[in-house]
User: Which sequence fits this backbone?
């Protein structure tokens, strides 16, 4: 990654599209890995957020970008929380 970081408002439409596509792809990859590890809840949640991000990326013009920014932050935070989770075996009752 080169250059100075930009806000969504500072990015052009192409840069915004690529940012959303990158986060959505990362969520889908994490969902697949979580599914392989048996974490069905994270897999489903991650796929849903990725779908919302993909749905919103076609509406990233100059209008109010706050909803898009919040959704993007949610996706990034979901990835962060999953990557830093402690792996605990499930307790069977």
Assistant:
């Amino acid at each position: 990654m080169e250059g100075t970081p930009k806000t969504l408002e500072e990015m052009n439409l192409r840069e915004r599209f690529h940012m959303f596509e990158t986060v959505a792809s990362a969520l889908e990859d994490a969902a697949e890995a979580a599914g392989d590890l048996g974490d069905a809840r994270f897999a489903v949640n991650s796929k849903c957020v990725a779908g919302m991000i993909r749905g919103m990326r076609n509406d990233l013009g100059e209008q109010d970008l706050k909803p898009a920014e919040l959704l993007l932050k949610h996706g990034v935070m979901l990835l962060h929380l999953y990557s830093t989770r402690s792996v605990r075996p499930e307790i069977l009752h």
